[in-house]
Write a structure and sequence with these properties.
Largest sheet: 8 strands, parallel
Strand order of the largest sheet: 8-9-10-11-12-13-14-15
Radius of gyration: 24 Å
Low-confidence stretches: 545-551, 554-569
Shape: globular
Strand content: 25-35%
Helix content: 10-25%
Distance between the termini: 69 Å
Number of strands: 30
Structural class: alpha/beta
Number of helices: 17
Mean pLDDT: 93
């Protein structure tokens, strides 16, 4: 009986026909930067031959095409695609993303270990290789009420799972620097494994202390200057371009052949409508090249550099002995996937039918109490009122202050200055807390938008001009078990149900994509000027940090200012 290893050697040496041979094309050598005319021989899940002539049981003519390694999304929350891992697999793999390194941070904040198990079970079945980083910050902050709590004792049983890489983005960087015991316990337990970072704007000695904990990667850089300091200090920078956070253009100056070994690509949060209209990592590659980035630099970042950063030593090159994750494209510039191979399997619609289904979880996770219009009142106070300032294309917000108009003893919206109401309503059934505030930058002139996707604790977040429409939209979320809702003049004008933990749909991604298009039009009818109004609503509950106090030595003192949140303290 010939073993799998022996078969690979026999096919690589040409003693036996290869299982599959791609003939007539060229491959992009990410070591030399050359386009090499070559057959590519595949046995099982492995490339076994290049730079020679091969014969195969199946021979595929790719004349005029170019083969590149499969793309690796190094940091994302699949929940933000609004579909389950199985549907994400079917949606994104045809674009050439053969590996996705996900952090189930969102579902973990709602369901805890049940959510992590759902993702791990799903990752065993998907055609693409989904790897999981264990969520390090559940709850993300003490300022909100999350649905779960994941101390180190609850994470340890998952540490040795074959799909687990390590510890996901360590958002509590002040806790690391100041040696918070909860942070220390998690960091100690994962020493020697990959630990992902999350430290926006951190620099100097504070950054040095953060990195001394063993953290190696970072996706929160928003400027070339910030990225260069972190690269110099040994970090691998994950260039991000999602549906809300768009950092690709700002970071293009560092995407060079010299720095590409220390770069990777990620989407963080990207929905099916944007994927359908623009693409996924292929969109980042096209955009970078169109703006002057050398193809070798961006393709390295999309594959081999990403693989090395996360210890995936079997993928990222078109070479014998490497995993047969391959994308056949027209040109390096257009990066259009004509054909995709995942672990040697040609990706076809029929291939996805071989997966076993995984039962959905968290179908009754929305437990918010019904609200009335009166619950959205904000009493008049002396002086100026704190207002959240939305920054288009970013998840960070600003702390602004305005003298707002009033009606009797209630502070009201100021449409002339684009200031409307925002509220967060606890939806995990723990305390029923409710907090109100104001936000600037949505462009709404009427109605309301509500969501159970509310980073990071995923309570209900609702913005609006009309308190009646705010109550209508928020209450509708409970009826559909979570999702997004648009209300105008006392009517629901758009909605999408996301019953899986209030975060993901049970529908095919095509249905989600089409519904999002209709939903977006309903939001635009309210006057919003934001490209992604729903994800912008989803990120509003993040605590505002107006005073990130960094000393001349880079040490951090965070003065957290909570405008809104699951807890109205």
């Amino acid at each position: 009986m010939v073993s799998k290893l022996e078969r690979k050697i026999d096919q690589g040496t040409g003693r036996e026909k290869a299982d599959i041979v791609l003939k007539g094309g060229r491959f992009f050598d990410l070591v030399t930067g050359e386009l090499v005319v070559s057959d590519i021989a595949i046995c099982d899940d492995t490339i076994v031959g290049t730079c020679e002539t091969y014969h195969g049981v199946e021979e595929i003519d790719i004349s005029g095409k170019i083969v590149v390694p499969g793309f690796i999304d190094t940091h994302l929350h699949i929940e933000s695609s609004l579909v389950t891992p199985h549907e994400f697999d079917r949606c994104v793999l045809p674009y050439g993303v053969t590996t996705a390194i996900c952090d189930p941070h969102e579902i973990a904040n709602v369901l805890g270990t049940e959510g992590i198990r759902f993702f791990l079970d799903s990752s065993i079945e998907t055609i693409m290789d989904i790897r999981v980083q264990l969520s390090s910050c559940v709850p993300a902050t003490h300022l909100e009420t999350a649905g779960a709590d994941l101390p180190i004792e609850k994470l340890l049983p998952f540490r040795d799972h074959p799909k687990v890489i390590g510890l996901a983005e360590f958002m509590n960087f002040p806790g690391v620097i100041h040696k918070d015991p909860i942070c220390m316990a998690k960091l100690e337990a994962f020493q020697g494994q990959h630990i992902d970072g999350h430290a926006p704007l951190l620099s100097g000695m504070g950054l040095n202390g953060y990195l001394s904990s063993g953290i190696r990667t970072e996706h929160e850089c928003t400027s070339a200057k910030e990225a260069l300091e972190k690269i110099r200090k040994g970090m691998h920078i994950l260039v991000r371009e999602g549906s809300v956070s768009k950092d690709l253009h700002a970071l293009m100056p560092i995407i060079t052949e010299r720095l590409s070994p220390y770069l990777a690509l990620c989407t963080d949060d990207r929905n099916p409508l944007d994927i359908a209209e623009q693409g996924h990592l292929d969109y980042m590659i096209r955009t970078a090249i169109a703006n002057g980035v050398q193809p070798l630099a961006i393709y390295r970042a999309a594959s081999i550099s990403a693989a090395k950063a996360f210890g995936l030593r079997d993928r990222g090159l078109v070479a014998p002995g490497w995993r047969a994750d391959l994308v056949v494209i027209d040109t390096l510039q257009n990066c259009k996937a004509n054909m995709v191979f995942s672990a040697g399997r040609r990706v076809t619609p029929e291939l996805f039918s071989t997966r076993k289904p995984v039962a959905p979880v968290g179908l009754d996770s929305v437990k918010a109490r019904p609200v009335l219009a009166a619950h959205f009142g904000v009493p008049v106070t002396e002086g100026k009122t704190s207002v959240l300032g939305v920054l288009p294309g970013k998840i960070i917000t600003e702390h602004r202050r305005f003298k707002l108009p009033s009606d009797g003893n209630q502070t009201t919206v100021d449409l002339d200055n684009d200031i409307i109401k925002v509220a967060v309503i606890e939806r995990h059934g723990k305390n029923g807390n409710h907090a109100n505030g104001f936000v600037q930058g949505f462009g709404l002139k009427k109605g309301a938008i509500a969501s159970t996707v509310g980073h990071d604790s995923h309570n209900i977040c609702v913005v609006g001009v009309s308190e009646d429409d705010m109550a209508l939209a928020a209450n509708r979320l409970g009826e559909i078990k979570g999702g997004f809702v648009v209300a105008e003049n006392g009517k629901i004008t758009g909605e999408i149900a996301l019953p899986v933990a209030g975060l993901m749909s049970l529908e095919p991604y095509e249905t989600v994509r089409d519904t999002l298009h209709t939903l977006r039009q309903a939001a635009y009818a309210l006057g919003t000027t934001l490209e992604e109004p729903f994800l912008q609503v989803a990120f509003l509950p993040l605590p505002v940090i107006p005073h990130l106090k960094i000393s001349d030595k880079g040490l951090v003192d965070v003065d957290l200012f909570q405008l809104i949140g699951g807890d109205a303290k």
